[in-house]
Amino acid sequence: MKERTLHRLVELVRRTGRQEELWSRGDRIVVAVSGGADSTVLLHIMRKIAADEGLELICAHLNHGLRGGEADRDADFVRELAQRLAIPFELGYADVLSYKKESGKGLELAAREKRYEFLHRVAERYGAASIALGHHADDQAETVLMRLLRGSGLSGLAGMRFKRREKNVELIRPLLRIYKTDLLRACEESGIPYMTDSSNLSTEYTRNSLRLDVLPFLGQYNDQLAVSLNRLAEVASAEDDFLAMETSKAYAEIVRAEKGGATFKIAPFASLHVALQRRLIKLILNYLPLSTEESDFIKIEAVRIGAVQDRPTTWSLDLGGGWQAMREYGTIRFVSVAAESQIPHYTYSVEQFPAEVTIPGAGRTLRITRLPGGTEAALAKAASNDEAIFDADKLVCPLTVRSRLPGDAMKVMGLNGSKKVKDIFIDEKIPPSLRSRIPVVTDADGRILWIPGVRRSAHAAVSRHTSEALHMVWN
């Protein structure tokens, strides 16, 4: 009767473990124990469950080097606790203050990174499947409120997850449905000692300030605030998972990866619900890789609105980190600025046929062969913009295959005079990013004969009197 609360918590955690698939029989689990009430009760609970479900536990404690003798006292307490429960113990030490100065990060973040770094090392050493953390329902309420204040989206409002993959190890939170009052009651009823961290009383830290000042203040308007915030996290988590699945489907159907970047056609994108549009752009940015936080909503929205606006246009947007989003008529592309600038200029001279020229940056080749003239079959070969036929006797060899140059102009068939290549690209709606990848073919007199895949010139047209033709194919 005396340990009623602890027994109830054990059964609740056991049920949560099964529902959320937090462990499997035979798993080795590192339990992070600070010495406070939360993690101390967690270790007791997991020890009872481990005996029934064949789990193997390792107790891990990190001395952050921040609280002098108090930190040493906590380390000794956790060591003795592990020995008393017959659980292997691992102690680590971190100089968090030095790391804070080196990295320029805040104290809370610096301590967290060093703590997780240590826990992952322990998990790797023991070949553990997971790391059990002592976060509980009140921690979840604080997390949701903190993210709400920062302007988080649905993913942030989902709070901490019961299970999350990190560096090939699962981070599990078995206590996430249990409130602090129940944990303290279990300690009191069962005579479980624990340590008190004096730094938890300092409002210098954001989370402490939320717990000690903000939540009690808001509690005047809702005495079930922590419960409400946990309910919000539960609902947001399920809906976030659903939207994540739908976004993955949309990505597979719409997005095409190319040269480290990504591209998609605007028409199918515009048909998506606005929520999926935003999440799809965010997913692309995360894949680039381009670290995207919730605060990047403005950037995501700029890409989305620029994509769905009715008027066909071209634009580019600096995403930071050396990446750029650009609209090219009916396509949105995410490209590396460095990669785009590395397309080389080139010039190839072609004197003998058949010939084949590989075009840098285009992933295509230009093949030129001789054909006998005077037959309908030969003259009909140029059936698309990817093929062209010229009267060989009207050309001055050698031919040149080169990248386009400023001021390039071509005499267009059916048009009096010449037209700038740049204007031809615009008329044909050739995306700006592809223009530098398309070669031009000239003869020895410098006349542009053909822009492969785009337009042929009026020069050297074949006729029934043609005795020999050059057949060009853009593969």
From TrEMBL:
Its EC number is 6.3.4.19. The keyword Cell wall biogenesis/degradation does not apply. Gene3D superfamilies: 1.20.59.20, HUPs (3.40.50.620). It comes from the Bacteria. Its main location: cytoplasm. One of its GO terms (biological process) is tRNA modification. ATP binds at S34, G35, G36, A37, D38, S39. The keyword Nucleotide-binding applies. It is found in: Cytoplasm. Keywords: ATP-binding, Cytoplasm, Ligase, Nucleotide-binding, tRNA processing. It is an enzyme of class 6 (ligase). The N-terminal region contains the highly conserved SGGXDS motif, predicted to be a P-loop motif involved in ATP binding. HAMAP family: tRNA_Ile_lys_synt. This is tRNA(Ile)-lysidine synthase. It comes from Paenibacillus macerans.
